Amino acid sequence: MAALPADPHVLHPMPGQPRVVLLKPLVTSPLIEVGEFTYYDDPDDPTAFETRNVLYHYGPEKLVIGKFCALGEGVRFLMNGANHRMDGPSTFPFPIMGGSWSEHFDLITGLPGRGDTVIGHDVWFGYRATVMPGVRIGHGAVIASGSVVVDDVPDYGIVGGNPARLIRRRYGDEDIARLLAVAWWDWPAEHLTEHLRTVMSGSIDDLEAAAPARH
Measured in whole angstroms, how far is the alpha carbon of residue 172 from the centre of its chain? Predict the structure, then answer.
């Protein structure tokens, strides 16, 4: 009897570990899209991810996170609602204080933004990493603990620091192209289950050899 794949619709995938949640069955905001098996780990309240970890999300920019991403405790995404005017003497958002100041709300609407924040597949975020608005992070990237990501991260890049800088890439350009072409994260669940050891510890040659026929 063939082994059954894991269930991407279970909120807590690890028995006895309520600190780990799959985000796809958790999120409700139409402005957040998360792929299957992406998880968040937090000993406090991982189910509050939308309010505690996605900040200043007043729209319309989206947060898009791919499949099979691992988010360590305290990872946060700052959205464009955190933006303040910087073209005058003060950056303070007076109109949100109410009263007659609210008559000048046009001064804080329509501020320039960087668009959607887009995270690829198989990205590993270390403890308390922060992602700034409009950043795009490529497939297979690694974000070191405590990093503040202000610029785009290439596929299979490893970044760290504040602001985060590219430390190295996990593979060379040719191998990265091969990995992107094989796109194991899009394999059917049953096929992925059959070749899990290759995905986790095999070579790129092994991965290509194990890919479904359509690849």
Answer: 23
From residue 183, alpha-carbon distances to 95, 133, 160, 179 in Å are: 48, 26, 25, 6
The span from the CA of 172 to the CA of 125, in Å, is: 21
Please state the φ and ψ torsions of residue 137, each to the nearest 5 degrees: -115, 125
Residue of 9, 12, 57, 84 with catalytic role:
84
Percent over 70 (pLDDT), the chain: 97
Q: How far apart are CA 52 and CA 77, in angstroms?
A: 9
What is the spatial distance between Cα 195 and Cα 189, in angstroms, rounded to a whole number?
10
Nearest to 193 by CA among 35, 5, 1, 2: 5
Helix (H) or strand (E) holding 193: helix 189-194
pTM passes above 0.90: yes
For the chain, list the strands marked E by DSSP: 20-22, 32-34, 39-41, 54-55, 63-65, 70-71, 76-78, 117-119, 124-125, 130-131, 136-137, 142-143, 148-149, 157-160, 165-169
Alpha carbon 116 to chain centroid, angstroms? 12
For residue 84, indicate whether it is catalytic: yes
* Mean pLDDT, residues 12-39 taken together: 96
CA distance 140 to 119: 10
